[in-house]
Amino acid sequence: MDFSSVKGKVAIVTGASRGIGEAIAKIFGENGMKVVCAARSVEQGQAVADAICADGGDAVFIQTDCSDVSQIKNLVDKTVEHYGKLDGIVSNAGIGQGGSPLHEYEMEDYDKIFALNSKGVFAGMKYGAEAIFKSHSQGGFLINVASIAGIIPQRGQALYTATKHGVVGMTKVAALDYAPYGITVNAICPGYTKTSIFGNAPEQALTFFAKDCPAGRMGNPEECGYLALFLASDLARYITGAAIPVDGALSAGHQNVSTWKHPLFD
To answer: Which of 16, 117, 142, 207 is deepest in the core (most CB within 10 A)?
Structure first.
């Protein structure tokens, strides 16, 4: 598959210091894109940008707290100042919080998760789209990293699920808004994915996640990374408004009934 169309494109990747964001940033860099790595952690974010440059790519790091709208605007402004344009933004930064019935959440939990997972993504799309228009980008794109929680509700995840459903909704509306102008807008919806968020999880927990998935394993960040590369390329110019699961069929349906056999077929 020829991804040469992305060469020279300028893209921001938020939450680029680890996991899926890191994978997307590095894959973009490997394919000739100019990458702005944004994250709160200076040490980890700079390390990703340095790794891209060490492999012959072009990347810079800009420290950004994506729960702060003013910092996202500053991120976009600095990107355009440095590279002269913006072709796309991957809004990946987010947090998970759950495992409790709705009434056990505090109102502070609502404010915290919505500030990053919802308002932060909206700001990235808003300021990113403005810069893409001003750059007269040929092949502009907005990619939001949502979750399968944006497709199917998950018990004990009221706030997280609400934010990810919102991201998918914003993605679809923005796709309608920008389709006439050739800007694609899509959401990547990962399922269980091996990232540092599971770093301290016991092996028993990882085994559970693998068995809970119809594919029998957890995903790798690079699987989302290559999907992002495809969506950023000219190969995907007619794909917009999609929320694409990367989940080993986890969101396809309730798999447990497949173990039940009707007596007539015994």
So the answer is: 16
CB contact at 8 A, 152 and 207: no
Could you say which of 160, 178, 181, 226 is catalytic? 160
CA 133 – CA 124 distance, rounded (Å):
14
Q: pLDDT by residue (tens digit) across 137-170? A: 999 999 999 999 999 998 899 999 999 999 999 9
Share of the chain above pLDDT 70, in %: 93
Q: Does residue 261 lie in a domain region?
A: no
- Listed in sequence order, the residues at least 6 apart from 99 whose beta carbon sits closer than 8 Å to its beta carbon are 156, 157
Is 265 part of any domain?
no
Residue with the larger pLDDT of the pair 34 and 266:
34
**Nearest 10 degrees: CA dihedral of 44, 49, 55, 56?**
-170
Q: What is the CATH number of the domain that holds 30?
A: 3.40.50.720
pLDDT band at 42 (very low <50, low <70, confident <90, very high): very high
- Cα separation, 196 vs 181, in Å, equals 38
Number of compact structural domains in the chain: 1
